[in-house]
Amino acid sequence: DAQNAFKVRLSLKTALGENAYAWDAQEEFLFKAMVAFAMRRYSSRSTTQTANVLLCNVTDRVSFWFVVTDPSRNLTTVPGREVEAAIRMNRHRINSAFLLSDRTLQFLKITSTLAPPLEPSTPPSTPVWLIVFGVVLCLTLAGIVFLIAGGIRQRRR
Amino acid sequence: RAMEKSRPLWDNPLQFVFACISYAVGLGNVWRFPYLCQMYGGGGFLIPYLIMLIAEGMPLLYLELAVGQRMRQGSIGAWKIISPYLCGVGVASVVVSFFLSMYYNVINAWAFWYLFHSFQDPLPWATCPLNSNRTGYEEECEKTSSTQYFWYRQTLNISPALEASGSVQWEQALCLTLAWLVVYLCILRGTESTGKVVYITASLPYCVLIIYLIRGLTLHGAVNGLVYMFTPKLEQLLNPKAWISAATQIFFSLGLGFGSLIAFASYNEPGTNCERHAVIVSLINSTTSIFASIVTFSIYGFKATFNYESCLSKVILLLMDAFDLEEGSVTADNLSQMKAFLMATHPQQYAQLAPQLKNCSLEAELDTAVQGTGLAFIVYSEAIKNMEVPQLYSVLYFFMLLMLGIGSMLGNTAAILTPLTDSKFISSRFPKEVISGAVCLINCVIGLIFTMEAGNYWFDIFNDYAATLSLLLIVLVETIAVCYIYGIRRFEKDLHTMIGHKPNWYWKIMWAFASPLLIISLFIFYLTDYILTGTLQYQAWDATQGQLVTKDYPGYALAVIGLLVAASTMCIPLGALVTFIRKKGKRERVSTV
Fold this sequence. Notes:
The complex is a heterodimer of chains A (157) and B (593).
Chain A: E1 6-10, H1 12-16, H2 25-42, E2 53-56, E3 63-68, H3 80-89, H4 91-97, E4 105-107, H5 128-156
Antiparallel strand pairs in A: 1-3, 1-4, 2-3
Chain B: H1 2-5, H2 13-24, H3 27-31, H4 33-39, H5 46-71, H6 75-82, H7 87-116, H8 139-143, H9 146-155, H10 170-187, H11 191-217, H12 222-230, H13 240-253, H14 260-266, H15 274-323, H16 335-345, H17 347-353, H18 362-367, H19 373-385, H20 390-422, H21 424-427, H22 432-447, H23 455-466, H24 468-499, H25 505-533, E1 537-542, E2 547-552, H26 555-569, H27 571-592
Antiparallel strand pairs in B: 1-2
Helix pairs in contact in B: 2-11, 2-14, 2-15, 2-20, 4-15, 5-13, 5-14, 5-15, 5-24, 5-25, 6-7, 7-10, 7-20, 7-22, 7-23, 7-24, 7-26, 7-27, 9-19, 10-20, 10-22, 11-15, 11-20, 12-15, 14-20, 15-19, 16-17, 20-22, 23-26, 24-25, 24-26
């Protein structure tokens, strides 16, 4: 069921270094719980259980595939779009549960929206460089006027 | 005499030395010498460099300073005194200085631009801007790096070719105006103001260089760059280009032939020991070059190591993701073994992945030798963005560039203004401030050409051709004039009256034979080089590819190049011709009376 399954990849050592925890059955249980939580939050499937989230192919990397089955109808999987939307909505909560970020807990088919541009979305009325430019300009003009005035005064004397 | 008494003087000899250092130590020490060192054999390049310094640099510098100090006039007046037929040499110097000041201040404008943009967090060249629908980064920036994008697109807004002139960039025009106002502020009152400013412009770059040296040497990977630079490749010594580059570098680095040194020396007390000053200034200039290249190469090493390690981690990540290996199992050390192992165990998958696996090489990163504006504004800003507290280092660095550039501008404008203020015709009508103001204004207006979209291409034209051949010719004529027309014995006696002892045999041999021969050979080399290469070409920025491409100069650009060279070199024979005609006219009038 390739289109409804998602591959997940975790980079525990990259994210946490010394404090990385080992990936074992308990962590898998937490993952199932988070996905079930996301499904409950998103759609009206308030009966989704951890048993409805199936993991397979867990590797050393750590990476695995998962699908979500429909609780009301056995042996059918929830469409990928729903799962994707649910996870997107709750991405931050899922990341925080594992102490990871979008980059270190990757859902391979679900792209994260790029971080907003680093300047504020409404640019300031005058960019910073113009302000500094204005300051230096005023100082220079003041110096020039001062020196010229001094020269004129000297010549009159 | 009344004119001698009213000539402004330096407050003390230290101001003069600082002015010369400030003028000679310029951007070329920072961005050209490290490149040459890397190209021509690393530590081994120091051998031709030092030999040329002693054979060419010191004698010619001494000569110019002595002429200026003895004649106590700017370049036009000084050469007129040596021989009336040589007034053309002075005029040629002024013309070359004029061309130089036109385009050189644009570098200060760029330094201002980067300086003002350093007061932001994060630095604007650290990341690519997002494209218009926020789905990814700006396309041009993706193809190249964010620092190159900032330089070519956001600073220069460069057009794809010289022909596409585009419009004047108002931001650059503002910075250029500010740069000229600052220069005007410094030269406004002549030596009175220049003398104080050079204390700062001469010493501040050293402070920044020392800070950068400490910072650079403590950077991770700096040692790689230093080792790479200093391992002497002695076989390069057999390459004639190494010797020619050494000679050229010494020649242009000291700023001979522009008339600035003559102008500075003319404001000296007649008894100043210019021999000692010549030796000191040339030694300090060369030492600064070597010092700056140590800093540059630590920075190179840091940047190369950083890029190499990023490349490695990308490859490692790719392998780990593709084969689902445990994190930490592939490291930099076992990368090649792991690659071989994976190739053996999963050949098909590996073959699919192979095109993406780049071969990361530290040597290749270090080999990218850069010079000129590319080094100063791209490579350095790339290194700075990866340091801690980048804003501080950025501000320091661009402030240093500014000091170096303004210091050289002071010399250039002095070379133009001193003959103007010396001439009784002009100085009796207009006060000093008005003359300086007029020169700055004219240069600023003409300089707006370099703020257009194709401005950087015109900048390169001026940088490569405005001064090179003309200066060689000017200095050659100067040396021959002093030794053979003025007479070396007369010159000896003048020096004896000025500094108290005659120059010893070493200086005399250098002036009379060695230096002229060196200059002639340089001149012949450059002429043959230009003739042999046929059409002249330039590097244009291709936005679609995100890199530089080589293009031919259009016809009118070649005409401008020809004009630039001719305008200054033709002054020498024209000056002699005009004087000859004038003298003949006078003789005829006298004889008819």
